[in-house]
C-alpha cells in the first residue's frame, strides 16, 4: 500500500500577528510561495501523493489556495475541525482513510528532510511511531526528546526551562505512524501527540523511535523564524525549489544596488539609488529613490518611499513606509498599515492592519488598539510601568491559564493595583475570588486548596502570577503572556461574562491548613517574634494564639537580644522564611533547612524529593517522588512559607528545646557558585555534562551528579545568563572542592565553545 500523508494546517498563527490576521498561517508566503506549498512539494518529491490536510482557522482560504492539489501533483483531501481538536485529535478525523503507514507534517514548517530515509529507518526498527528530530542550540520553544544508542526514545520534556534542557534534539512535528496509533487516540475528543499520545506509548514500552535529520528545518512560528526561513531559501541553504531571483517584468533603475541575495517580484519598481540587501520584494511593490531595505520582506503591493530605511522587518500586502521613515529590526506592518514620513519604529514594533504610526514620531510600542509593551520580569514577578500594561498583562494571564477560576490578593500597599487586576480578569471572562489583604505565602496555600487555576498577588507595583499549584509561573508561561500583550490576540474585553466574588475568611482557611495537628497543647516557653510587617504580625499572632503559645513578645527585626529562657524567630520582610535562634544558638542555613524537613517528616511520615531538598535529607527518611497529596503540598508550603514553618517549630518546642532539635539532624554543608553563560551555551553545558560523566546522575531540575562523599547539582538560570552550581557534602572541604571543580569545568566549556565559534 502506498504511503499516505497528513498536513496539520489548522493553527491560528497568533505568534505571527499581524501577518496572520488576514490569512491562516499555512498561506503565509515564503518567496511568494505559501509555506504549506513547500510541504506539498516535498511530499511529491518523495512520491507521496495521497495527502490530507486538517483545517480549522479560515479553512475556506486554504481550500481556495490549494484546491484538489493538482498544481502540486498530489491528490489533496480536507478534514475540517468544528472546534480545535489538538494535533492528534485532528489527525483522528481521517482514521477511516489512513489504512497503512502515513506521515504527519506541520503546515507551517519548512524542511527538506529526507522522508525516504526516515521511512526506511522507521521500517527497519519496526516502529509504531517515529519522530523526526533535529538538533538546535536553543530548544526552549520545542519538545526535547532523549534517545538511547539505537534511536529508541527514552524521555520527553515538553517545552522545557533551561534547567531541563538535557538534550539538544527537538521534536520537529514530523511523524511516521502506523494505523494502530489510532488505538491510543480517542475519537471525537481533543488530544495531542506531544502531551497525550507519545507519553502514553512511552509508558507502555511500545516501539517509538527518533530519526535525526541533518537537513534544513524551521518552525515558521514567529516573525524571527519567518525571516530566517526566507533568508535560508534565498541563500540556497535548503534543497527545496524556489523562484528565480528576478522577474523579467520588474523595473530596476541602473543606479540601484542589489547586494547579497535578493528576490524581485513581477512588475516591481526599484527606484534610483535604492539599496537592497538580502531582501524579498513582492509583486507590484514600489521602492523609492534612495530607500534602503535589508534582511526584510515586502509582500505584494507594499511600498517603501524615498530614503526609507527598513531592516529585518515585514510589510504585509498594501503596507506603506513613507519617506525618510525608519524601521528597526523585528518590525511588522499589517495589511494596509502605514508609517508616516520621518517616523522611527523601535525594535519589535508591530502595527495592526490599516493603522498608522504618525509622521516624525518615535514609536517604541506596538500600535494595536492601545500603546502597549511587554513587562519587566523580575525574581518576584512582573514590574508594571502603567495601569494599561498591568491590565493587559492580567488579561493575558486569564487567557493562558486553562482554568478560568482565579484568586487575587494584595500586600499592605497595593489596593489600586489589586483592584485593577481583579477587574481586568473579570473583563476577560474569568471568575475571580478577591482574597483581599494577605501574605503571598497565604495566597500560594489557597490557590491549590480552593482548586483555583492560578493566582495574582499585588505588592507595590509588582504582580506575582501563580500557577494552579501555587508556584510562580515558569518562564515559558511568562513568555506566552508577553506575546499575548504584544499581539493583543485575546477576545475584546467584556465579550465574556466574568465576575468578582469577595472571599470571606481567607485568612482563617490559610491558618486551618498550616496549623499542626495537636495545636491545643500549650507552649509555656517564652517566644520572641522579630518582625516589622503589621500584616505578618497579625497573621502570625492569630496562628500563635490558636497554637496555644502563651508567652509571646514582639520585637523589631533589628532587636534580637534574648534572655536564656527565650526562643526567637526572625521573619523576613515578605514572610517567605523564618530563622529560629536562642541566646546561645544560631542555626546555619543548612540546619534551618534540615530542621524544616525533619518537622515535615514528623508530621507527614514521609519526605518528597522536591527542588532544593538536599541529599542529606535521606538520612531523615527515604525521599519519594513528588505527587499531588496534601503531605507534598505541606512540604512545599513549609519550604517557602515562614509563618507555616514558625508554627511547626513552635509545635516542636512543646517537646524539646531548639538545641535538642538541631542535635538530632544529619550534618551537611551546601555551597553555591554562579558561572556567567550565554543563553545558547546553557543547553550545551547541561547535556555535555550528562554525556561525559560516568558517575551516577539524575535529571530533574538540572543535572545532579553523585560523587562518593557528596553531590553537585548544575542548573541553568531561566532568566539570567548564568549557570548555578550547588555542591553538598557532610565534609565542608569536599563540598568546596566539588563546587570549584564544576565551576572550573563549566568555564572551560565556555572557552571551548567560544574558540569553536570563533574558528573560521
How are the elements arranged and paired?
Layout: E1 4-8, E2 29-30, E3 33-34, H1 35-45, E4 50-55, H2 59-66, E5 75-80, H3 86-91, E6 102-106, E7 109-111, H4 115-125, E8 129-135, E9 143-147, E10 153-158, E11 169-177, H5 193-204, E12 208-212, E13 217-219, H6 223-234, E14 251-252, E15 257-259, E16 263-264, E17 269-270, E18 275-277, E19 280-281, E20 286-287, E21 292-294, E22 297-298, E23 303-304, E24 309-311, E25 314-315, E26 320-321, E27 326-327, E28 332-333, E29 338-339, E30 344-345, E31 350-351, E32 356-357, E33 362-363, E34 366-367, E35 371-372, E36 376-378, E37 381-383, H7 387-400, E38 405-410, H8 415-427, E39 431-437, H9 440-449, E40 454-459, E41 462-466, H10 475-487, E42 499-502, H11 506-514, E43 527-530, H12 534-546, E44 552-555, E45 567-571, E46 578-581, H13 589-604, E47 607-608, E48 623-624, H14 630-640, H15 642-653, H16 658-663, E49 669-676, H17 679-692, E50 697-700, E51 702-707, E52 710-716, E53 722-729, H18 732-758
Parallel strand pairs: 1-4, 1-6, 4-5, 8-12, 14-17, 15-18, 16-19, 17-20, 18-21, 19-22, 20-23, 21-24, 22-25, 23-26, 24-27, 25-28, 26-29, 27-30, 28-31, 29-32, 30-33, 38-39, 38-40, 39-42, 43-44, 43-45, 47-48
Antiparallel strand pairs: 2-3, 6-11, 7-13, 8-11, 9-10, 34-35, 36-37, 37-41, 40-41, 45-46, 49-53, 50-51, 51-52, 52-53
Helix pairs in contact: 7-8, 7-10, 9-11, 12-15, 13-14, 14-15
